[in-house]
Structure formats: structure tokens, C-alpha cells
Amino acid sequence: MAEPARAVIDARELVKSFQGNVAVGGMSLRLGEGEMVGLIGPNGAGKTTLFNLIAGSLKPTSGEIWIGGREVSQESPERRIGRGVGRTFQIPKPFLEMTVLENVLVGAQARDGERLFANFLRFGHVRQQERLAIEKARALLEFVTLSGLEGQPAKVLSGGQRKLLELARILMADPQAILLDEPAAGVNPALLETIMERVLDLNTQGKSILLIEHNMDMVSRLCTRVVAMALGKPLAEGTPADVASNPDVIEAYLGAAA
């Protein structure tokens, strides 16, 4: 049997309580190098809270989060981006008055031009760095099919285009692992195909991807492994077909619908 891929993200027995209410209760999840894993569950299952814990916008009540072999449970989101973990949000919030290109450039990390003295002491280096950042941002806009809109304000973009823009902005930081929070939600079928193609391209390039999604067709087409959770706890894990046919998963979804 083949050895499992080295873990990029390893969340161990995570618990998150809010004033006594348990949103995540003993959840473990492992994302290996080059894996694409789906995270499913009914509304209120704790999926986004788990994402927030992994990305650093929430600190766990207990449990551990390891990124690239380092325990990072108390580190900030900025430090975790530096360690190679980027995330998108269910509802993208671009800077509406800034251009599409400027929104992507916001995602660039550790630019010398952000430091006052570097603009005076290393002006040529800063100009070169900015030029390279613009070239990279334009290449990413082409990758997400938005290059024709680079000079337009982000407020003109549709919901699906905003999700593509957010993906391009995250890619400016060169993450090894990408957490995608419901990329299919509210997206028209044509743009959804584009999003799926780009996510698959990124995975083929070696990016590890953890995907929250209710669209089981998308999960089945993209993911080799699926983790289901309900009420903040693990429910099932396996192939998309196995998890979709699991009686506990079916009951959790039907119960939520009822």
C-alpha cells in the first residue's frame, strides 16, 4: 500500500466553544500534499468555523493545528498565509472602488514598498518588485479569465467573477494549501464550470485544496476524499460515493431539511 502524502494541514481534535455553545467538538482533519478534499455537512454543521480555526481568524478552545509540520494554533492569519495557507470566503468582499488589478495586487506579500525607508534607500529595487508584482497579477487575472476587466472597478463584477477575483488575490501569496468556502454558491452554471476548471488546474499544479461545498456534483467531480461533519463533529469519511450513500450523512441532511 502506498504511503500517505505528507500532511500540509493536520487539525487534531479541535474544539471551539462560544459562551458554552460548542460549534466544533473534537474535529480532526488531514490534508496531504497535492490532495483535494471535500468538507460537507448540513447548514450549521461547523464547517466554516473549522475553516476559521485552520486559517487563524479563530483560536481553538482546545486541540492542535499543524501546518507543514509546525504547531500554529495561536498564530495569526497573516503568519499562516506566510506558511502557505490561503483561504477564500463564502461571500467575497473585494474593495469595490479599486480596480480589479489593484484588488489582486493587495494579495502580494512582504513587498519592500510597504516600508517607508525602502522607498528612499532601495528605490530601484522597489520599482522592479512592483513591476514583477503587476506582471504576476496580470497573469493570474488571465488564469481566472478576468484579464479584460483589469482596469474596471471591482463593483462591476458579478458574484461568480468576484469569487474568481478572490482566488486570483489569494494566489498572489503563492499558497501551498487553499481553503475554498462554497465557491459554487450563487454562481451561474457557465462560471461554475470555469471555477471548477481553475480549481482542478491548481490541484494538477500541486496545490492542496480543502473545499467546503453543498454542490455534491462539484465535490464528486473534483475530490478523491470527502469528510462529512454534523453538529461540529466528524460523521463520515471516504470516497464521494461512499460518503454520499452513508446512512448517517443522509439522515443528517434530511434532518436539517426537515
UniProtKB/TrEMBL annotation:
Similarity-based family: Belongs to the ABC transporter superfamily.
SUPFAM superfamilies: P-loop containing nucleoside triphosphate hydrolases (SSF52540)
Matching Pfam families: ABC_tran, BCA_ABC_TP_C
Entries under InterPro entries matching the protein: AAA+_ATPase, ABC_AA/LPS_Transport, ABC_transporter-like_ATP-bd, ABC_transporter-like_CS, BCA_ABC_TP_C, P-loop_NTPase
Entry's Gene Ontology molecular function annotations: ATP binding; ATP hydrolysis activity
Source superkingdom: Bacteria
Domain ABC transporter positions: 9-256
PANTHER family, alphabetized: CONSERVED COMPONENT OF ABC TRANSPORTER FOR NATURAL AMINO ACIDS (PTHR45772:SF9), CONSERVED COMPONENT OF ABC TRANSPORTER FOR NATURAL AMINO ACIDS-RELATED (PTHR45772)
GO CC terms in record: plasma membrane
Keywords from the UniProt entry: ATP-binding, Nucleotide-binding, Transport
Descriptive protein name: Branched-chain amino acid transport system ATP-binding protein
Organism: Rhizobium metallidurans
Keyword Nuclease found: no
